[in-house]
Amino acid sequence: MGAAVGFRLGEGALDQRMTRFAAALLVCASSLVAGFVHAQAPTTDASTRQQMQAGANAEMDAQARARFRVGQSLYETGRFQEAAVEFAAAYDLSQRPELLFNLYVAYRDAGDTSHAVDALRRYLAAMPASLEGRLNLEARLQSLEASLAQQEAAAQQNPQTEVVYVDRTGAAQRSTHRSPVGLVIGGVGAAMIITGAITGALALGKVNDLEAMCTGNVCPSTAASTRDSASTLVTVTDVMLFGGSALVLGGLAYWLFGPKVEEDRPPVDGSAFCAAGTCMAYVRGEF
Questions:
Q1: Cα(173)–Cα(286) distance, rounded to whole angstroms?
Q2: Is residue 246 part of a domain?
Q3: Closest residue by Cα to residue 103 from 117, 126, 11, 10
Q4: Containing domain of residue 73, as a range?
Q5: How many CA atoms lie within 13 A of 218 on its CB side?
Q6: Could you tell me the pTM of the whole model?
Q7: What are the pLDDT digits (tens) for 141-151?
């Protein structure tokens, strides 16, 4: 019998070839993934930047709308110059040319011709030629420019005097004067002297009546009341005259030699201004 002859590949060689094939496949896959990631990275970054930019633009638009609404409120209350500030801020934030028209109207109503001309000129330059009412606005711009040129020419021919304000406010001054207490005391004394003169005249009348009623040193009983009245009036007269004289002298001495009163005198202030050949001034003080 003949023996069968055959052969087998070594299992180790096959395993090596399969290992090399798997390694090559892994390297290719890694290269493909790396290439895909590298290709997608710029796209992802650009998308992120666009989203961030969109968010920033939305926030600026919200701020612009808020400033615009404030400007509208100010304009409706007649505060045109302040409204113009808000409209300008809204335009700076959003760069919407329509806001330049609001800016022009606010400056126009505020009487600021120079800024109104600038705002209207920028508005017309930013808007398309097909803008509705463009011809009227261009005519208005020409009129404002002519008016502004006339104002500038008049200012050069007749220069206005600069407004000059002068403010002089004096500081409070300390003053010293005699106390009025002495005058009050003297016044009371003078009143007592006058009263004493009146009671003295009445007492003298009573004494004359008593002398008429009496003979020598003998007086009837009916003269007793007259005598008492005369005595009372004489006493009152003495008190009034001597007491009043003492008070007058004491009050005069107190006024001349007594302590003096110190007080702060209110300041006197004044202001003045001149413009265009006209001057005005005022002085205010307390006395």
A1: 12
A2: yes
A3: 117
A4: 60-159
A5: 1
A6: 0.41
A7: 999 999 889 88
